[in-house]
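Hey, I'm writing a tutorial for new members on how sequence and structure tokens pair up, and I'd like a real worked example in the thread rather than a made-up one. If someone can provide the structure for the chain below, I'll link this post from the tutorial.
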Amino acid sequence: MLSTRKRFSIMTLRKPIPSYKGAMAPFLTGLVQEKRAVGYAYNKQASRLKRFNDFCLSEGYNQPALTKEIVLLWTQKQPHENQSNRATRISLMRVLGSYMVRMGAQAFIYPKHSESYQENTYIPYIFTHAQLSRFFGQVDQLQANANSPFRQRIYPLLFRLLYGCGLRISEALHLTVEDVNLSEGLLSIVGGKTDRDRLVPMAASLVEHCHAYRESVHVQRRSNAVFFPPPRGAFLSPNTPYTVFRECLWKSGISHGGRGKGPRVHDLRHTFAVHCLKKWVIQGVDLTSALPLLSAYMGHTGLKSTQRYLRLTAELYPDIVAAVERQFGDVVLGDEKR
């Protein structure tokens, strides 16, 4: 269980509820309040609801109901919009519609699976161990500059946490000193992508890196200090690590395929999962028992996301695909096998 102090830190990550207007305002506010009451930060969704609210008013729609017409108008695909973003808007409308019906209002609930859209077709870039060695060799040579006095300290550890613990970049950037428990070798991830808290154990080598980093960057060791301090603002922007990431990729001779083709910073997390599964298969670990552990470790809400890594592992390492199929064939091949 997380402490009351930690729970308070979740509250501090929540932004004020936007000022909704018009006849829909009580329902939009109520939905955000309900989600936060059960522990969700619900910041991005609250902002999307504000955009929906503004859209409704701009279209002259101001009713205490959610009609099919306004939902379909809001969720129609925009120029240059990818299907994933549209799916997010559709999902939010489905949640809003369900909430309004429970509140006794008339609302159109967007049917599930009524829109066929392709999932994100991006294929994760999985680094080889040799590439990671060259990449981290370049990261370790970074120098401080006027805009980032701790640059040479932050990025060697930040990128190692992404790969060594399979963290999302947002999770790493929101760590505080208190979240990094060096005595127990644990990271406290608070309010991650799925708004779920979790504890992430670190390898001994990562704990040593964290020790050295804290001694050089956090001399005063304020518990509420951001672990990776930005030159300005509350947290480092994800764009800044990405720029450093691209710089080190180029210096280590790893080509970038351009926008949408990677490698991306997030691919360090993908690489962690695939390398972990490959190691388990070679060691003969029972994947039936191990897969749920990996799912919880990475903060997945279910096994579906983790199963994707099993398929990817089998595709990248055909020499072990037979072993993967023997141990977890139904999960690896899914419907394709049937």
